[in-house]
Design brief:
The chain has 2 domains: about 200 residues, 3-Layer(aba) Sandwich (Rossmann fold); about 140 residues, Rossmann fold (3-Layer(aba) Sandwich). By secondary structure, it is α/β, with parallel strands linked by helices. The longest helix has 21 residues. Helices cover about 35% and strands about 20% of the residues. It is built from 11 helices and 15 strands. Helix 7 crosses helix 8. It binds 6-O-phosphono-beta-D-fructofuranose. 6-O-phosphono-beta-D-fructofuranose binds next to strand 12.
């Protein structure tokens, strides 16, 4: 039986998402209720690995006062990063080059020195892969699945996703009137990295006529035919939702910036490419709206807020029950635990037999195939 827990840490990693502060609040209140202390690590693990960046301290005590009234706030009071992987920590060498160095032992040594008994790590695929590696090295870790992309396996959904879909749907609702007034094609590019969940759910909910997702390489001529078909019916405008990771059958994804040391490639630009191609093929005016980081902001919906609070409380319960190397998971109707081994490094793509996808097809939505 491992030593009783007295002090835990929490950190938030990867892209931010609405709901992070609700998780932080639930973890801190649940821990303190058990007589534990809770500290927060700034910006992923950077608060430990680069303490010089934090004059007020890279690891801060989290009291009830610190987490009062934060559950509805977007972002994370701890800050986050997707450039601070302790397993591949970017270090500038004397010759000016940057190398990735494994500094995970520094994390474990910090926990031992500070008397920290366990970690709640809130993040997406990258953060949970790190959490699994730290667990394997002996740290007690419970992961919490976070991402607006909803691309984490073994959980019905991640918090942040519902809020992103809700906002994207509202944006689509707003675009119908201007598209119809100008008989235009409105192309809306949404985030989601290599999965099409945000595009699919918001596109169907927001009445899009075509939805292009990474899981279905698209034929732009089929999308153009859909636009012309609507014109023939007197519906002289079209709404096309494009996931940032979508790609044509005979082409490639659009990338804003290539992967660099410590950071993944930045996707973006497919919306413009689709709009140009549709304009050329149909002769209609096309305009592009890139929702981008708007999808990462705002106050979490009640669904995301409750999911995040449940996840945070379950993470502390899991630690209290001796669990480690697991991620809390939404397995309707309950929150459960799955091994991080089963989650790390796996992406949940939109399944081709998904009834949501079939619903889109039954509603006559074109997916470019
Ligand atoms: O993973 C969440 C996400 O918003 C992706 O949908 C998007 O591709 C990426 O993060 C953007 O990352 P950054 O905030 O570093 O530009």
């Amino acid at each position: 039986m491992s030593n009783p827990i007295r002090r835990i840490a929490i950190n938030t990693g990867g892209g931010d998402a609405p709901g992070l502060n609700a998780v932080i609040r639930a973890v801190v209140v649940s821990a303190i209720k058990r007589g534990w202390e809770c500290v927060g690590i700034r910006d992923g693990f950077n608060g430990i690995l680069c303490p010089e960046r934090y004059p007020e301290g890279g690891v801060v005590r989290l009291t009830l006062d610190k987490v009062r009234g934060i559950a509805h706030l977007g972002g994370t009071i701890l800050g986050t990063t997707n450039k601070g992987n302790p397993l591949k920590f970017p270090v500038t060498m004397p010759d000016g080059t940057t190398q990735e160095i494994d500094r995970s032992d520094d994390v474990l040594q910090f926990f031992a020195k500070e008397g920290l008994d366990a970690l709640v790590s809130v993040g997406g695929d990258g953060s949970l892969t790190i959490a699994n590696a730290l667990h394997r090295k002996g740290l007690r870790v419970v992961g919490v699945p976070k991402t607006i992309d909803n691309d984490l396996d073994k959980t019905f959904t991640t918090f942040g996703f519902d809020t992103a879909v809700d906002f994207a749907t509202e944006c689509l609702d707003r675009l119908h009137s201007t598209a119809e007034s100008h008989q235009r094609i409105m192309v809306v590019e949404v985030m989601g990295r290599y999965a099409g969940w945000i595009a699919l759910h918001s596109g169907i909910s927001g009445g899009a006529h075509s939805i292009l997702i990474p899981e279905i390489p698209f034929d732009i001529d089929k999308v153009a035919a859909k636009v012309r078909g609507r014109d023939k019916l007197g519906r002289m405008y079209s709404i096309v939702v494009v996931a940032e990771g979508a790609q044509p059958v005979d082409g490639h994804r659009e990338v804003l910036a290539p992967a660099e040391v410590g950071h993944a490639e930045r996707l973006g630009g497919m919306g413009e490419r689709v709009a140009k191609a549709l304009q050329e093929r149909t002769g209609k005016d096309a305009r592009v709206v890139v929702l981008g980081h708007l999808l990462r902001g705002g106050s979490p919906t009640s669904f995301d807020r409750l999911a995040a609070l449940r996840f945070g409380a379950a993470a502390v319960r899991g630690l209290d029950n001796g669990l480690s190397g697991v991620m809390v998971s939404l397995a309707f109707p309950n929150v459960d635990y799955v091994s991080l081994e089963e989650v790390a490094g796996r992406m949940k793509a939109v399944p081709m037999d998904s009834d949501t996808l079939q619903t889109g097809r039954d509603l006559g939505i074109c997916f470019g195939d």
